[in-house]
Each structure stands twice: as C-alpha cells, then as structure tokens.
Design goal:
The complex is a heterotrimer. Chain B is α/β, with parallel strands linked by helices. Chain B is built from 9 helices and 10 strands. The longest helix of chain B has 14 residues. The relative contact order of chain B is 0.17. Chain C is mainly alpha-helical. In chain C, a hairpin with a 2-residue loop joins strand 1 and strand 2. Chain C is flat, with a radius of gyration of 24 Å. Chain C starts with about 30 loop residues before the first helix and ends with a helix. The N terminus of chain C is likely disordered. The chains are: A mainly alpha, B alpha/beta, C mainly alpha. Chains A and C meet through helix 1, helix 2, helix 4 and helix 8 of A and helix 1, helix 3, helix 4, helix 6 and helix 7 of C.
Chain lengths: ~220, ~250, ~270
C-alpha cells in the first residue's frame, strides 16, 4: 500500500511530509531521553530489516484469493515502540533508494499510512495487555484485533489520500462510500493478518516475551 | 539397490560452475565423509541430493527413485550447518514433531516418534523448553532429533561439529557412528570424519578427486595439501606423545 | 562473520545498488549534497505541475538530464516497470469517472476529456519523478548518498539506522530463505490457507525476529568495542563543493522555478 509519486496534490504531500516529520522528530526526542540513545540503534535497525523481509513474504489466503503480503504495521508498533515510526520512514527511504519503489514526494504520506496504525496499536497493546497473565486468551484477542485493525486503518488512510484528492465528479458522501467499500475489500487480508498477529504473539509470548514486552520492547541493554 | 546413484551431475550459477560432471554411488548403510576446502561444492552437492537445488544436468536417484526438485522427500534428512536455520518452533517437542506431522502421521505415531528421537538424542528432558534457550550442542541435537523423527533412510550432515564443545562433539560422534541409516557427513573436522566414516570422498573444484579408504586418502600428505587440506593429527607418525594434547579446530 | 560464507547464490538476487555509481558524467561529478538539493527542487517542481501541456517540457528536461548522466536506458526500463502498472490503471480508470467534456460515448460508458488529461498528467509526473530519483541515487554510491544526507542535517540516529538496516537486509533475507528451505525439507508446504499454515508462518517470522534481535545485541557489543557512540567519533565531511557544483545547482533551481512560473501563468 504505497502511493507513488505524481498522484497527490502539492498541498497534500507537503502536509503529509510536515506531519510525518513532526512525528519522527517527536519519536526521536523520546528516544533521546533514554540514557544512551544509540544503544538501541542496532536493535531497531536489525528489526527494521527483519520487518522488511517479513513484509515481503506471501501468506496464503482463503479462496478466491491465493496469497497476500502482510502489512505488519501493528506488530511493528508493539515490537519497536518509539522506534516504530522512524523505522517505517527508514524502510521507505531504503525502498526508494534501493528498489525505486514507493515514492520521493509521497514518502511522508506513505509513512502516515503505515505509521499511524503502528503508533495506535503500540499504545493500545501496552494499555490493554500490560498486566495480563502469560497464558491469557484476552491478549490473543487484542493481538488479533490489533493486526486486523492495523490493516483496515492503513487501508482507510491510503484510500482517503487517493479518493480525497482525485477531482472525481462525485459528491462527498459517494467518496466516503467508495472509501468504505474499498476498505471492506481488504477484510480477508485483515482477518488473515489478525490471525497471523495472534499466532505471532502466542509464539513470542512463549519464547521471548520481552520482545513484545510491556516494558518498551527495545530497551538499552 | 544403491542408496544414492548420481550420474554426471552438473550444477552452475550464471557466473560460476559449482559441480562438474560428478558421479557417485553409495550403498545402503554406508557412512561417507565428504571433505574439501570451503567453496568447492560440498553444500551444493547436499542441496541437490535432497532436492532443494535443481541440477543443471545429470541425474540423482535415491533408493531407485529419481529426486524431484521442490518435493517433500521424507526419506532424506538434511542437518543444516546452523541449527538456528532449522529450529523455529516454540518448544523442542513442537519442533521435532514438525516433520512427522507434515508426513500426515496419526497423532499417536507422531508422539511415539518424537519421544523416540528425543530419547536417542538425550534431549527428552528438554521437550518443553524453547529451542532459543538451549546451548549450541543442545540445539544441534534437537535439530538432529527433528530429522531423526522422520525416520529417513539417508541423512546428510553439513558441518555438524561446528561450534560444539568437546563433550557435545563427542556425543555427536557417538551418535553418528551408531546411526543405522546411510550417512553423508561434510566437515572440516577431519578427526570426526575419521571416526564416523568408512569411506571418504575428497572434492575440489566441483569434482571428486579421490574416493576410498579414509586413512589412505587423509594420510596422503601430497594429495591433502594439493587440495587445501591437512593430514589429521592422529594420522601423523607420533614420535612421542607423553602429554596428549587436546585437539581442536 | 560465520554466516557470510554460505549460500553464495543469494547474492544473485541482490540489486547492485552501486552498479552505475562509478561511471563518469557531469552528474556523477556533481557534489552529492548539491545534487540531492538540485534534483529534489526539480522533483518538487515536477510534482506541482497542474497543466498537462507542460508534459513535453518535463519529459524533455528529464531525458536531457538522463542522457547527461550516461546511465543505461535498459536500467531505466526496469525502474519504470512497476510504476507503469499504477499509470495504466489510472489512465484507463480516470476518463470514465471524472470530467465534464464528453469525448466519446461507448454504450453506457462515456470517456471524458478532463479525466483523460488528468490521467496523462499523473502518468507524466510519475515517470519523470521516478527517472529523476533514479538519477539522483543511481549516480552515487549508497554510502555517499547517506553521508550527504547526514551533511544536510538528516538526524544521525536515522542515518546510522539506514546504513545498518541496509547492511543486514540481505543477511536476514538469507536467514529467512534458509529457514524456509529447512521447513520445506521437513514437509512444510505453506501454499494453502489453514490455521496451521498461518501459525507455522508466524513461528518462522517470530524466530526470524528473535534471531535478528539476538544478533543485533552481539553487533552492538562489537560496535561499542570499536568506538560506536563515543562523542569523539570523527564526523569527517568529505564533501567539497566548487563553483561548478554551485553552477549546476543554480541551473536546476532556475529550471524548477521556471516550470512553476509557466505552470501558474498558463493557468
């Protein structure tokens, strides 16, 4: 779900740049408050690379679809904490420089598409699951909803950018309807990502609970 | 029937030829050591045998059946050089059960096989642990148990003693020595090769240079040095050995 | 590093990002910092063009700079392949949903002029921007580009992360390929949709995360041992601009401003 260059009006893409720049700056400020801000850089970088790889795999989908990419926005938020937004920006920069995908002018907008769900899911997961026992079902339900909502939210932002800025001769209500219908078309992917996220949380809970931990996932060692 | 029949196997990447016209036959139950310097094609050979890589030309038959690239061949097991490549399940038990479950066995049979494989590798008491928390030697034994539980007729070990301490290495050697199946072991640990194999093949530049008795081949200084190897210590004439030196690689 | 000598063939999939960085051209010789600024100004101007009649000008400017940069045309074709799908979708879709001036009626469908020109405009902007971006990053090594960004006040932590992420991207891809192969050898098909396959895939990905995380802890220790994070770290600025660099940048800025003015005046 990347918006390529050339589609968004200047006002929109510059506005998105300002917004994502501000969120990145705020995230970096939170990171800089840590005792040694550079301590977590290799971890965040390695995890960014791992997310990059994980989001390139195809996950089987129920028919009539065959397979789809994972978005992993919510998971990134939960695992990377304040590093999530900068990590997403870095992923997009690498994609633009190395693979020529994504976009230069739309980098800010694309960061918002992925980063907003990441930040919301990160906050929610910490709030809701903080003091749950290790074999708790509720945690898995939250994980499912987090993965699910992450996809729907990313799709909603994506289509709002595109439909909201194309000068189609349809009225506001029709635009909103179109956005909702397009988001609904992502339901199967959202369900699979929800199931995947729950399975991932169950796995990490048993192996390295600190990685999805309730203390910031990436803490200076 | 031969366990392995390889005829005129060639494998190449766009830039480089890895295996040149390699032919090999292996009898069931044979334990064979595969030696050679880094990058001569040992891992590629293993990967073509178990059907991960498609040969550029030539044929491979295992127990009379041609290998089909990309298919599940439970009769062949590959123990990876890095156990972390292989162990991903949340618990040791789940990991060892992974192969048998994929073979479509009934639950009772799966449980029996997992218990047996973990007992043979002395890892049964770790069955509920996460593989990530194990030591290098323990991970290696779990990886082997995961292969063993599929009850393959042929097991390929790629550098099995890399990063093992003395005790784990000793356990591994004993284990491979007593394995009933056909075994191919690729290693730079020539002392291990000497202990576990009845036959050695020396590979260089994608070809079999020598094939035969381990002590004859590995005791031949000229041959070994020509192909980037060294005669193992235990095959050197010992003038005196009052302090037996620990030998590591 | 122990992992570096296995699976040589993965390198075949690695896009050689520095493949054209060592060619020689006026663009290659341009100071990286000024090149980023100059071409970025051009991209901004391109992105704000509203009038499709400017497209021939945009394409000409892009083609001239591309020719000056002496990059191979085959490489550009590869770069433009993915954006082409987006463009095709828009050019086909837009004429039906937007505009008042009817060009053609095909049964229930009407093709409208405004939609058609909007589609062309978006397509033109997209192709030109992707090409300029390719020139911007393709005529320098990745390392120099990041160093230039750093010199332009891109945050240090972010620059460090970009370099490290890039450094480990291919290694982690190789980890993951190897893990998938190992799982496949033990019968994991993964092709069909089932809860079981999803949870196996989740375990593979989870294991990848743990492995990456644990490796990063070792990497960090190694980096600290070699002085990472110390305030004494030398920030050598190896860029030195000459009047030629200023000149090239000025030309780009003039072109960018001219485009903006023409676009506004025609409107």
């Amino acid at each position: 779900m990347h918006i390529p260059d050339g589609i968004l009006p200047t006002v929109v893409w510059t506005g998105a740049y300002v917004a994502s720049g501000a969120i990145t700056a705020y995230s970096l400020r939170q990171i800089n408050k840590q005792e040694d801000p550079r301590a977590a850089v290799p971890k965040a970088a390695m995890m960014t690379a791992a997310f990059f790889v994980a989001s390139s795999i195809f996950v089987p989908m129920p028919p009539p679809m065959t397979s789809a990419h994972l978005i992993l926005a919510g998971t990134m938020g939960v695992m990377l904490g304040w590093y999530a937004f900068p990590a997403i920006v870095i992923g997009l920069i690498l994609q633009a420089i190395v693979f020529g995908h994504g976009g230069i002018t739309t980098l800010g907008a694309n960061a918002l598409i992925m980063g907003t769900p990441a930040l919301i899911m990160s906050a929610l997961f910490q709030r809701l699951v903080a003091k749950r026992p290790p074999d708790d079902k509720f945690t898995l339900i939250v994980a499912f909803l987090g993965g699910f909502a992450g996809v729907i939210l990313a799709a909603a932002i994506y289509y709002s950018f595109i439909i909201g800025t194309l000068p189609a001769d349809i009225n506001r209500a029709a635009e909103i309807n179109a956005t909702i219908i397009l988001c609904l078309s992502h339901l199967p992917v959202a369900i699979v990502e929800g199931l995947f996220t729950a399975a991932l949380v169950r796995y990490l809970r048993r192996t390295r609970p600190d990685l999805i931990g309730l203390t910031p996932a990436i803490s200076p060692s | 029937m031969n366990a392995i029949t390889i005829q005129n196997l060639k494998f190449s990447y766009p830039q480089a030829i890895v295996l040149h016209d390699l032919s090999l036959t292996v009898q069931p139950g044979e334990h064979i050591g595969v030696i050679g310097a880094n990058g001569v094609g040992k891992t590629t050979l293993f990967h073509t045998i178990c059907g991960i890589l498609k040969p550029t030309s030539g044929t491979i038959q295992l127990f009379g059946q041609p290998v089909k690239t990309g298919q599940f061949h439970p009769q062949v097991g590959l123990v990876f050089q890095y156990p972390d490549d292989q162990l991903f399940a949340p618990t040791v038990w789940d990991d060892v059960a992974f192969g048998p479950l994929n073979m479509g066995l009934p639950m009772a049979a799966v449980e029996e096989r997992v218990t047996q494989a973990l007992t043979e590798t002395k890892m049964l008491s770790f069955k509920d642990r996460a593989p990530h928390h194990l030591s290098g030697g323990q991970k290696r034994m779990v990886a082997i148990a995961g292969i063993r539980a599929m009850q393959p007729d042929l097991v390929l070990y790629d550098e099995p003693s890399a990063n093992l301490d003395m005790r784990s290495r000793r356990q591994l050697i004993t284990f491979i020595k007593n394995s009933p199946e056909t075994v191919l072991v690729s290693s730079h640990d020539l002392e291990l090769i000497l202990e576990v194999s009845q036959r050695v093949i020396l590979i260089d530049d994608g070809q079999i240079i020598a094939d035969g008795d381990p002590t004859t081949i590995m005791g031949d200084d000229t041959l070994m040095e020509k192909h980037g190897l060294e005669r193992p210590h235990s095959l050197r004439p010992h003038i005196h050995a009052p302090q037996a030196e620990p030998h590591t690689h | 590093m122990a992992d570096s000598n296995h699976h040589h063939h993965h390198h075949n999939h690695t896009p050689d990002i520095d493949a054209y960085a060592r060619l020689d051209s006026p663009i290659h010789r341009w100071d990286t910092r000024f090149k980023l600024l100059g071409l970025l100004a051009l991209i901004v101007a391109f992105a704000s063009v509203q009038d499709y009649r400017l497209l021939p000008l945009l394409v000409t400017i892009t083609a001239v700079i591309y020719t000056l940069a002496r990059l191979p045309w085959a490489a550009l074709r590869l770069r433009l392949r993915f954006p082409s799908y987006v463009v095709a979708a828009l050019v086909i879709f837009l004429p039906f949903i937007t505009g008042q001036t009817i060009l053609l009626t095909l049964g229930p469908l009407t093709i409208r002029q405004e939609g058609l020109t909007l589609g062309l405009l978006i397509a033109g902007r997209l192709f030109c921007i992707v090409t300029i971006a390719f020139i911007m990053f393709g005529t320098d090594t990745f390392i120099r580009t990041i160093a230039a960004l750093r010199a332009l006040r891109f945050p240090d932590i972010m620059a460090d992360m970009v370099l490290l992420t890039y450094r480990y991207l291919f290694e982690i891809t190789a980890f993951f390929d190897q893990m998938q192969t190992a799982a496949r050898l033990r019968g994991f098909q993964g092709g069909a949709f089932s809860l079981n396959n999803i949870s196996t895939t989740a375990a593979l990905v989870g294991h990848l995360f743990i492995r990456s995380y644990e490796k990063s802890e070792r990497v960090y220790k190694a980096m600290v041992l070699r002085g990472y994070g110390a305030d004494t770290a030398i920030r050598r600025d190896y860029f030195q601009a000459t009047w030629v660099d200023y000149g090239k940048t000025a030309v780009m800025l003039i072109i960018a401003i001219t485009i903006l003015i023409i676009d506004k005046l025609i409107f």
